Amino acid sequence: MHSTSELQDIIKKAFNPASFAHEPFELYEPIIYTVDLGGKRLRPLLVLFGCDLFGGNIEKALPAAIAIELFHNFTLLHDDIMDRAPLRRGKETVYRKWNTSVAILSGDTMFALACEYISQVDPDVLPLALSEFTHTARLVCEGQQYDMSFEIRKVVSINDYIEMIRLKTAVLIGCSLRLGAILAKAPPDDTAAIYSFGENIGLAFQLQDDLLDVFGNEQKFGKEIGGDILSGKKTFLLLKAYEIASPGERSELDQCFSDRSMPGKEKITRVKKVYQSLMIREITLDKIEKYFSKGLQSLDNIHTDEDSKKILVSFANELLKRDF
Questions:
Q1: pLDDT beyond 80 at 289
Q2: Which residues are CB-neighbours of 168 under 8 A, at least 6 positions away?
Q3: Which of 96, 324, 88, 79 is nearest to 220 (CA)?
Q4: Looking at the 3D structure of the chain, how many domains does it have?
Q5: What is the CATH number of the domain that holds 258?
Q6: Statement: the pTM of the whole predicted model exceeds 0.70
Q7: By the 8 A CB rule, do 174 and 252 touch?
Q8: Is pLDDT of 64 > 90?
């Protein structure tokens, strides 16, 4: 089993921004810009982890790893437009740097490129790998639609929200690991278990992302802090706050989210104060830990050596230790 750093080096070499330099340059320049932003390359790394865990050839898994990362970045280009996000990984988002039309078209091209890469896997596993990839792509889009629908829905339950982030975020984490396992020709029971591990880690990861949006360090987080509060996004934090708030605290939240003239900084400060009084940060951290533990239980069901599993557990631990 390769170490995390070894797999990261392989991924880094595979993502050469210059390889996406084609004509028309206006179409591919934003793609090069996006690829060059880097990021954690979490999902392609998990493809290689999934393949390596079951003794597969990680070199043959690279096209699938690149496909997953291109698809993920395609969703980010479009999400930034829908969320009107000014920053991504600490840099100006594509639609802000160019324009919305460019971001849409370049994003569409990234999806097409992702399909080209996934088609390069070994022919004997291509049907299963392609089915996994396209099915997950559809689920991610369903999750994004739920996310947008929640903006206008008056009533959204915590269970509704968890299902939305499962579709929008967690299934792609699970898919990355299962795709690697498929390429390594792992048994169906093991591919199901590694998917469950990834899905639960993905839920924990997204909940932590929501937490960082409120309580994180903007420079380390790479995005503006308080964006979810300013947009009135129905995150786990907000839904839980409404669930356990006193009438006075609920009234305070109502005022913060209904008063459009309230300055942004004031709104963030007042909502955070309610969160702190209700111990929303601690409640969210507890929820994150529960999903993490559930993921580890799924990993225990995988039929492979324990040392290899430990590398994956260690990586997951590091993933959820992002700074506040």
A1: yes
A2: 140, 143, 144, 146, 147, 206
A3: 324
A4: 1
A5: 1.10.600.10
A6: yes
A7: no
A8: yes
